[in-house]
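task queued by scheduler; priority normal; single chain, no ligands, no partner chains; default sampling; output format set to structure tokens
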Amino acid sequence: MDSSVEASAAPRATRRSPGSAASSPVRRFAALSVLTLMVFALGTVLIAERIARQQALDEARARGAGVANRLAAPLVNDEVRRGAPESSDQLDLVMRNRMADGSMSHYKIWDEQGRIIWSDHAQLRGRQFDLEADVRTLFGTRDVTAEVSDLSREENVEERGEGELLEVYAGSFDADGNPIVVEAYFPVERMEDDARTLVVAFVPLVLASLTLFLAVVLWLAVSMSRRVARAERERTRATRQALLAADVERRRIADQLHDGVIQDLAGLGYVLSSVTRKLPNDGDVGAVRSTIEHATGLIQHDTAMLRSMMTDIYPPDLREDGLRLAVEHLAQTEAREGALEVHLEIHPELTLSHDAGRLAYRVVREGLRNVVKHAHARHVDVEIATEHPDGVVVRVVDDGIGPGTRPGWSPEGHLGLRLLRDTLDDFGGELQVGQADPTGFSLVARFPAQLVVT
């Protein structure tokens, strides 16, 4: 297949890098830390409210047991059960005194049949209701249960307009030894006051501790970030120095090739050509002439190879048109060597710094050489384009055998690709290699378009 290079400058749509608007790691860390602090604050408030609720229920159980065993139960006897006014008045007086000081809202006294022996609501006295199973189990014991009541049961019709109340059921025994259950209601204001007290006392302490911890962690994060940035700058300077040293060495080698070996070989080729023209074609002289012509051809071929190598070692200015000409020359050379058809596409609005141009040239060179050596391809696409306002992407994609079908091949084992990946990492870029679609090998490099190594 004839080798060829097709150059194109067709415009392509640019794409904004998804990471171009990302905040710095320290800012992301700070934002997440503040969000975590808010979550902890909310959790602390909820825990404080839960603790206050539990404390209020425990206190209500104790108060309910005291009302049942020390006040109500000793005043309940057969006369109270029958509704005798004299006996009922004393019970009513004692319980209403407790209600008058605000420590209790309502009360009921139940017998085992579910009948209300006594209540602060006179209309409920003597009425019978179905008791819940957990209330029935309290008869014959001194156990106590407490909950925040929703006042939805039938016997709570008189209390429904008062909102939530702490509802306590306390088992006890009346003056005659009969089992009873005293139902008492306590206001929730005290529970809410306890919750506020806990929040005021506990939450600021927790938030202050977390804020202090966050400040220390952020200080450490900023300090580490500055150290990393300083290390990156030092590594970049070292890389720059290495590149400059390599650049000087390449220039020295190119000068020696151009002014020494290439000039000598070119002069030798002219001399041999001149000698060949003066020799006759007959007899033994004809054989010498043929040998000299063959040697002349080898010298001319090696001279051309050295000139190409010199350009490869130290290419011309790689900005704007210089990059296009250098890449086209490189593509033509590799196309001839690998019998490839190379399609070259360079974005018409591409603007690269000198360092970015050199890096783009190196990516194309490494990609094309990888194709020639390993891919067994017939066609390769080379693209250099802007990907977002501050970046450039270089793609080298062939139609040969993919990486999965190359015995023993891996990017880690390929020295040229490893070196190229490390170089891109040093300059804030990335290298992606892998299977092309549908077949072949894909090499994609991304890095800053205005890269300046300082």
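post-processing summary
- The two ends are 45 Å apart (CA to CA).
- The chain has nine helices and eleven strands.
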